[in-house]
Amino acid sequence: MSKQQGFTLIELVMVIVILGILSAFALPRFANLGTEARAATMQGVLGSVRSASAISYSACLVSSGCSESAATGQSVTLEGQPIALAYGYPTTASILTAAQIASADFEIATAGTIAAKNASGTCEVTYAAPTAVNTSPAIAIDVSGC
């Protein structure tokens, strides 16, 4: 008598059912990765904006021709690009250049607002230049709708 090897039909059906159940639980987890990726990207943008702001301010402090008490008319050069300053920090219009953020990669509806593409709600970093001497720029992130 020869011994048969392999799976029975019932065993094959059970494996398919178990795989179907596992995939039903795993699919929502993988579908949510786009949201997490957009939120992580915006965290990176936040870091870029903060760094660019601090580097611009430092460059103004060490430059003999730059005054951190001037509201307009001041600029520094970063990576060969002129950055307009307000009280030593990048202006709202020049923060994208200072942070080297490409407008093709994000939605830029207004100056100082950098939003993620394909977000279902609010998923943005906002930057507002300082409005007085000895104040820092307002930099905020909202990833509630990524």
Automatic annotation (TrEMBL):
<keyword id="KW-0812">Transmembrane</keyword>
<dbReference type="InterPro" id="IPR045584">
    <property type="entry name" value="Pilin-like"/>
</dbReference>
<protein>
    <submittedName>
        <fullName>Type II secretion system protein</fullName>
    </submittedName>
</protein>
<dbReference type="Pfam" id="PF07963">
    <property type="entry name" value="N_methyl"/>
</dbReference>
<keyword id="KW-0472">Membrane</keyword>
<dbReference type="InterPro" id="IPR012902">
    <property type="entry name" value="N_methyl_site"/>
</dbReference>
<feature type="transmembrane region" description="Helical">
    <location>
        <begin position="6"/>
        <end position="27"/>
    </location>
</feature>
<keyword id="KW-1133">Transmembrane helix</keyword>
